[in-house]
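Components:
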Amino acid sequence: QQPVQSPQAVILREGEDAVINCSSSKALYSVHWYRQKHGEAPVFLMILLKGGEQKGHEKISASFNEKKQQSSLYLTASQLSYSGTYFCGTVPGRRVGDMRFGAGTRLTVKP
Amino acid sequence: DGGITQSPKYLFRKEGQNVTLSCEQNLNHDAMYWYRQDPGQGLRLIYYSQIVNDFQKGDIAEGYSVSREKKESFPLTVTSAQKNPTAFYLCASSKDRNQPQHFGDGTRLSIL
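Structure:
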């Protein structure tokens, strides 16, 4: 099943913060976060693993509540370059093909 | 630099025609994936492959076929049975389910 993302869209001014949520109806092994600019390929942001380990490389943070099967992506002091569509991918099973992406959250950062 | 190469960037299909989208990776990843993205939509899994000579259907496999004869290559054929093929197709690869997926630049397929 596809995870549910909220909000569907958000508009910010530079320097403002945003939170994007992702929830699943299944128990999760991990949650992935990606950002996609218009017409381009998605780019990896972060993976959150069951048990608390987190892998990422940008100035963006995230949380993973295993009990609630939810993850949240925190964008602080947003920059114009943060604009794009953010997708979460949830991994409920052990097979590589088990990941499913949410419908995306479109983030627009204005000057 | 390692990465994933998809070709062509744009592809047009005539009625009743099969077309093949190429995907090559030099990241030494075992797993490869094909996704379809429609305007304003998320990514839907078409097929995936965990190892050479093995692949599995995703959520929307009807009208598509794949092969995995080499670790580096995972071509996708859009057959004439796929009645609504117009979409953005993305190929990805990863080491395993808990490692990042690396995406190619995509192929945009349209009907003539």
